[in-house]
Design goal:
Structural class: alpha+beta
Distance between the termini: 7 Å
Radius of gyration: 13 Å
Number of strands: 9
Number of helices: 4
Helix content: 10-25%
Oligomer: single chain
Largest sheet: 6 strands, antiparallel
C-alpha cells in the first residue's frame, strides 16, 4: 500500500490534497478503505456546510460497520463527490482518485497533519 507523497494525512485516516486557490480535496486513505471493507453508503457534507478540523462531517457505511467521517481542516464545503454517493464502492476501488469525498475552502489547517511517511509509520502500512 502506497500513500501518495503529495498528500497530507490525519490520524483519523483522511487525506488532504495541496490547497489550490484556497480549496483542498479530501478523502479517506486506502488503509481506512480496506479496514472498512466494502463501502455501500456515503453520507457526505453538503455544499455550503461549514466543517471543523477533527469534527464529524458525515459517515461511511460498509458491509462491516459504520464509520464517522472527519474533516482534517476547517472551512466551507465547495463540492461533494456525487459519484461516490451514487457508487460508494469508488471509496474502495480508487480512494486517492475518483473516490475523493468533498472539497473545502480552507480557513484553518491544523499543524498536526502528517506527511506520507509519517502516516505510513503511524498506520503501520
Amino acid at each position: 500500500m502506497s500513500n501518495p507523497q503529495q498528500l497530507r494525512y490525519s490520524k483519523e485516516h483522511e487525506w488532504l490534497s495541496a490547497v489550490e486557490d484556497g480549496v483542498a480535496t479530501i478523502g479517506i486513505t486506502e488503509y481506512a478503505a480496506n479496514a472498512l471493507g466494502d463501502v455501500v453508503y456515503a453520507q457526505l457534507p453538503e455544499v455550503g456546510d461549514t466543517v471543523a478540523a477533527g469534527e464529524t462531517c458525515g459517515e461511511l457505511e460498509s458491509t462491516k460497520s459504520v464509520s464517522d467521517l472527519y474533516s482534517p481542516v476547517t472551512g466551507e464545503v465547495t463540492a461533494a463527490n456525487q459519484d461516490v454517493v451514487d457508487d460508494p464502492s469508488l471509496v474502495n476501488s480508487a480512494p486517492f482518485e475518483g473516490g475523493w469525498l468533498f472539497k473545502v475552502r480552507v480557513t484553518d489547517e491544523p499543524a498536526d497533519l502528517l506527511s506520507a511517511d509519517e502516516y505510513t509509520a503511524f498506520s503501520g502500512n
